[in-house]
Amino acid sequence: MFSNNNTVEEEMVSEEDEAQDCKEKDQKAKPKKAKIKLAKELSDIVIYCKSVHFSGFEHSRDNQAFYEMSSFKESKAFNLSETSATAFIHHNIDKLSRIYPAGTRTDSSNYNPVPMWNVGCQFVALNFQTPSKEMHINQGRFVQNGFCGYVLKPEFQRSLSSQFDPNSLTNGPWLQKKILHVMVISAQQLPKLKKDKQNSIVDPLVKVEIFGVPADNDIKETHYIKNNGFNPVWNEKFEFAIHVPELALVRFMLEDYDSASQNDFIGQYCLPLTSVQNGYRHVPLLTKRGDIIPSAELFVHTMLLDCL
User: Fold this and answer.
1) PROSITE patterns in the record, alphabetically (predicted)?
2) Residue 4 reports pLDDT greater than 60
3) Which of 25, 75, 143, 218 is the most buried (most CB within 10 A)?
4) Which residue, 112, 111, 241, 239, is CA-closest to 169?
5) φ and ψ at residue 37, rounded to 5 degrees
């Protein structure tokens, strides 16, 4: 460089300056990655779920944005669903709630997701690695939309004027009393549970279970048929009183009767009550992990009628 008195001065260069200069040259030598151009209009509609601490329903109402999500351990969520159900429902109208299994479940067991759905929680997380009744219910909840992972909540769970409380039912649009008539007729080609043993023919029985608000929870079962998994016939009729059909699910469960120990699982199928169609129906059967059992079916007659 040149000074004001037109004399040339030698610039002193430190080792750090040399290192920095080399670094800059290397960076210039490397080709720059192409930047992706996004339309601002599209970028503006991308909303991420921001995790925030839950400090109470009133605090969330006044301070929490719609894209902010609170996470609840199952014990806290169940307590809120029992003591402040209506407030929890109002919270979940425009706020996001995620429920997760307690850390004490070292065996990866699951809690019942139905009470969480009853108060409108959107993200009810389960241990998917564990096949269980709770996972069967979760699978049944999303049958109606092809397992896309989304179900629109009933209108009474989306209205701020709603006073719906699943634990203490009062008159309202949620109260649509119905009677579910189920006749368990027969089954076909049930699988053998112990293929390595000669006497492995099952003694099947059928349980029909209702899950929903506490007033609707019920279970009834047939007698067992001895040594007949090919075409057992029961012809038994059951009747269930349903108060809130939009939140109810029905589950058909087949077990191998055992007088000395717990019955063994054969197959099951769960679906929302609103998806039940009247008439004679062949019900497919699924394994514990939710896979279809080839050729095996349950034959039933169902009638869902308004309660007069």
Assistant:
1) C2 (PS50004), PIPLC_Y_DOMAIN (PS50008)
2) no
3) 218
4) 241
5) -90, 125
